Amino acid sequence: MKQVFRVLQIAFTYIGTVVGAGFATGQEILQFFTQYGKWATITIVLSTMLFVWLGTKMMLIAHDTRSRSYEDLNKHLFGHRAGRWITWITLIVLIGVNSVMLAGAGSVFMEHLGLHYQTGLIITLIGTYLLLGRGMQAILQMNSIVVPMMLLLSLLMIFSTLHHPGVYRFVTLTTDSNPFQIWISPLLYTAFNLALAQAVLVPVGNQIRHRNTLKWGGILGGIGVGFMLMAAHFAMSAQMPGIIQFEIPMGSIAFQLGWIVQSVYVTLIFMEIFTTFVADIYGMTLQLRQHVDVHPRLITLIIMMLCYSFSQFGFSSLLSVLYPIFGCMALFWAGKLIRDRWGTFRGRNNVN
């Protein structure tokens, strides 16, 4: 039972790392999948298979090579010099993404709770600092609470859509998009998310002792991500094309289900931002500890202050340049991950 619980913790952490604010709002799913009509169901299945395979393989490689941080993994995949360059680009993108997520947390407090924007930022930062004092165990436990709630909300979305007049649109919707856009989209989505998730999944792979526990946790986590993708796509397809006009597509569905579901949804958006933010700060701290000989709590504080500073001014202009570069790099990174001979599913159940 202890190992089963550990498998679930790993799976929930995997899901919680991938499912950030963009996923929770539905905007990512709409842009990468739902807008492509009936083809989205097939591309989501493809993306799920990649999440199961490559996410698990990444954690197993981290376990087998004893990689402490994503920098160690990148050096293993690309060699010392190229691996360091890729790591620093990843760090800049992670700081940018987490600055935007922190700004999103402030917006949730302001728009839905009637509190000041800065209050949301400060509460998020204080909560992050306190939780990170407990290390990886806090991240595993936190996701064990939040992710089951997200899965329940996904089920509720499915059941509510079953009574909608457009329930079968997920298999009938047409699209004018060209085939290249349709089929590159799941590859980009999976590669981009896994390249960011390595900040969390590599330390998980390194710190979990039993290889089989890690393997089954990764498999269940990848399936869980795919299930949530499909549930959101199913719910949004029923309301196409009108749902495209909403900035928060999933929110428009939640608001139709009453104030209780609406309140739960708003809470979960914040918790998804918070869990991803905490995990990413932890991963960046581990990476920087390999270069800076200071206490990890000080490194954490510096990273959080950087995110806080950028959340005041916006990171959009820099991210608009970095995102395409990082997207191409993520595809190349995923290709190296596929070709790497380490991290096979049939490896020995060795112990660190």
UniProtKB/TrEMBL annotation:
Which keywords has UniProt assigned to this entry? Membrane, Transmembrane, Transmembrane helix
Query: Where do the TM regions start and end?
Result: 7-24, 36-56, 85-109, 115-132, 144-162, 182-204, 216-236, 256-282, 321-338
- Domain of life, source organism: Bacteria
Indicate what this protein is called per its UniProt record.
Transporter
- Which InterPro entries does the record match to this protein? YkvI-like
